[in-house]
């Protein structure tokens, strides 16, 4: 609607201008000639150069501001159609009028009023609905604009600091009711409750932190709020100290865990969320959770609210759907071009077994889907053996054949049904059934390409998992193509990551000198920044290892131990997960402490943890997160041993004192 009205206005303006020129051309005197003066018109209506230049300047200002009003009013839901019309049509009329009236000053004044007046009226309706730092056409706004202009000219001007909360604009909408009228009723009830502002702020903070889950927990000292961000659960974060100083001596703001909400505020916020989600109605109908919708800066996201009560506490968790990540190729996952080419080469073979693995909740499903997308699905038929209760991402030209374990059906029966269609490739996820595993390997040894995923710590542990399913070693060796394993690594925030002199042990492991790699990066000693919402990391990438080759197949057939199997894989060119992780650290993409967290798992299949995986304190400053009952252990301090004394980097000058060596953030 807004774009239509704007396009119509521009079209009317152009047609009017062209038509007027045509009419004047047919007149006896023709179009008024330009006068030699700079700032006025003659009695015949001649157009001076200066008014003409000002006319085009007003047009440029109007085009920019009218587009901004449309986008801003849409974002904040401030009647976008109405205000776009108000900014477009009056100015179009004034700009045409400025061509005809004989007084240039009057024409310029009319255009200025038609440009400024709608903006002033829009600001009166908009400013009360936004933070002070985002207000427009106020004294503070003018000071910020003036200071920004002078800064571009190299002049520093001190202005009053107006610090916004940096939170996105969030609105809530009920979606769980049976009728739209009932949804509207729930929304109105929630908006009228005293905790509506607190509930909105909780969702704003979760969205700003990129949280996939918001946890609200009642404890003895208040209501604690936690976030699940990039697979890590922990307390919500906030600014404890604002920035200090100016210029090069400016100290960044300090981020810490937010204190608990008081019981009244937290309880009222939970009541609002339960009302908007229709939790009471869902409970009566026997549903385990309730849903609602939020809109974050104009983008809709689904949410699910669930409540869990124990003898000592009550916990409300809200799952927020994140924007889907759909990689189009293996390189989009962080895989090197060389390794991605090798994977594509293996899965293009006519027959054999290819294995994808990772620990639980480490992105195995995403990599498995990316492998399927990279396969030649359009040249041969693929079928997927899936449990009906499992939600899987559909891949084009991969036909799912489902079975119900709850009804007593076995996956082998689904495989037999799928083979009636004579597919050329069979895939399945989370392989645990021994009977199905044996059938799949026999197909891979015969004439089928088989791609499976298993839960394992690394590529060689995945091979051990298959052997533990009573699969003959010689059969596995004959059909084995490769085993691809992965881990997810959090990426350091590019805004607040700090340099750290490269430890000698890392230089020795990478076989480089201090001149070649003088420093790496660590997480911020101030607890983060606004770009990472105090998390010190932003997003994740994956590291991979691929075990494939004749030496590995020979080692499998001989049933060697884990150490010899690893040596065989390295001989075939496997670059281990820990080596890949060290390369990530050397490139400054992640930190040593993050490597320690990722590899702090029980060693299986003889996997060795090099120096990169040892506990290393890369964050000497910051606050120690408190223990939060009800959250996963990863959010509790003291869950990992302290770093070796020789590898603990010292705090930078002026940084706050760090936590105890055993504290984990």
Task: List key phrases describing it.
665 residues; alpha/beta; seven-stranded antiparallel beta sheet; seven-stranded mixed beta sheet; 20 helices; 18 strands; 18% strand; disordered N terminus
Quick structural gist:
By secondary structure, this protein is α/β, with parallel strands linked by helices. It contains 20 helices and 18 strands.
Strand order of the largest sheet: 1-7-8-9-2-3-4
| Tally of individual helices | 20
Distance between the termini: 49 Å
Estimate the helix proportion, in percent. 25-40%
For the secondary structure, the number of strands is: 18
Task: Summarize model confidence as the mean pLDDT.
Answer: 78
- Please state the oligomeric state of the protein chains shown: single chain
Low-pLDDT stretches: 1-6, 30-38, 602-665
* Share in β-strands: 15-25%
Structural class: alpha/beta
Rounded Rg:
32 Å
Biggest sheet record? 7 strands, antiparallel
Characterization of this structure:
The chain has 20 helices and 18 strands. The protein has 665 residues and is α/β, with parallel strands linked by helices. The strands form four sheets. A seven-stranded antiparallel sheet has the order 1-7-8-9-2-3-4. A hairpin with a 2-residue loop joins strand 2 and strand 3.
């Amino acid at each position: 609607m807004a774009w239509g009205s704007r396009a119509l206005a521009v079209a009317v303006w152009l047609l009017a201008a062209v038509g007027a020129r045509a009419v004047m051309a047919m007149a006896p005197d023709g179009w008024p000639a330009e006068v030699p003066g700079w700032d006025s018109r003659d009695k015949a209506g001649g157009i001076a150069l200066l008014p003409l230049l000002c006319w085009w300047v007003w047009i440029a200002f109007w085009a920019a501001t009218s587009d901004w009003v449309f986008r801003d009013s849409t974002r904040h839901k401030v009647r976008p159609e109405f205000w776009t019309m108000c900014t477009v049509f009056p100015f179009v009329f004034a700009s045409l009028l400025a061509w005809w009236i004989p007084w240039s000053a009057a024409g310029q004044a009319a255009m200025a009023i038609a440009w400024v007046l709608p903006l002033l009226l829009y600001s009166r309706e908009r400013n009360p609905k936004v933070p002070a730092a985002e207000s427009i056409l106020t004294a503070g706004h003018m000071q910020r604009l003036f200071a920004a202009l002078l800064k571009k000219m190299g002049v520093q001007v001190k202005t009053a600091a107006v610090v916004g909360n940096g939170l996105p604009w969030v609105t809530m909408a009920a979606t769980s009711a049976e009728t739209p009228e009932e949804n509207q009723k729930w929304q109105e009830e929630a908006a009228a409750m005293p905790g509506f502002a607190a509930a909105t702020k909780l969702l704003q903070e979760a969205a700003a932190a990129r949280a996939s889950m918001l946890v609200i927990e009642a404890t003895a000292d208040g209501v604690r709020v936690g976030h699940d961000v990039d697979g890590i659960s922990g307390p919500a974060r906030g600014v404890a100290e604002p920035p200090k100083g100016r210029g090069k001596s400016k100290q960044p703001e300090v981020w810490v865990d937010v204190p608990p909400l008081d019981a009244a505020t937290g309880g009222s916020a939970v009541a609002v969320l339960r009302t908007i989600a229709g939790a009471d109605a869902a409970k009566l109908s026997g549903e385990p959770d309730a849903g609602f919708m939020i809109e974050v800066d104009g983008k809709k996201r689904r949410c699910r609210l669930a409540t869990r009560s124990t003898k000592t506490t009550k916990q409300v968790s809200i799952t927020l759907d994140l924007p889907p990540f759909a990689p189009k190729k293996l390189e989009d996952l962080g895989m090197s071009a060389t390794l991605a080419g090798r994977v594509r080469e293996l899965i293009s073979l006519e027959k054999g077994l290819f294995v994808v693995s990772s620990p639980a909740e480490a992105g195995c499903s995403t990599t498995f889907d990316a492998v399927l997308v990279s396969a030649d699905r359009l040249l041969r038929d693929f079928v997927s053996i899936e449990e009906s209760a499992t939600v899987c991402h559909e891949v084009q030209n991969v036909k799912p054949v489902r079975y119900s374990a709850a009804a007593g059906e076995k996956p082998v029966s689904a495989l037999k049904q799928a083979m009636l269609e004579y597919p050329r490739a069979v895939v399945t996820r989370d392989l645990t059934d021994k009977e199905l595993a044996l059938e799949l390997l026999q197909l891979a040894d015969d004439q089928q390409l088989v791609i499976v995923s298993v839960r394992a710590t690394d590529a060689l542990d995945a091979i051990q998992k298959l052997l533990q399913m009573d699969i003959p070693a010689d059969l596995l060796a004959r059909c084995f193509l490769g085993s691809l394993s992965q881990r997810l690594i959090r990426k350091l925030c590019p805004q607040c990551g700090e340099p750290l002199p490269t430890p000698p042990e890392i230089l020795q492991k990478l076989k480089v000198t201090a001149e070649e790699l003088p420093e790496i990066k660590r997480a911020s000693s101030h607890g983060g920044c606004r770009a990472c919402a105090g998390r010190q990391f932003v997003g994740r990438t994956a590291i991979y290892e691929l075990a494939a080759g004749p030496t590995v197949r020979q080692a499998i057939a001989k049933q060697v131990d884990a150490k010899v199997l690893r040596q065989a894989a390295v001989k075939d060119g496997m670059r281990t997960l820990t080596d890949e992780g060290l390369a990530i650290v050397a490139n400054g993409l992640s930190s040593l402490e993050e490597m320690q967290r990722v590899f702090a798992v029980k060693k299986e299949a003889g996997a060795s943890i090099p120096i990169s995986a040892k506990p290393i304190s890369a964050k000497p400053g910051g606050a120690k997160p408190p223990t939060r009952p009800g959250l996963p252990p990863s959010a509790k301090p003291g869950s990992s041993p302290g770093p070796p004394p020789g590898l603990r980097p010292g705090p930078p000058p002026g940084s706050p004192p760090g936590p105890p060596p055993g504290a984990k953030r």
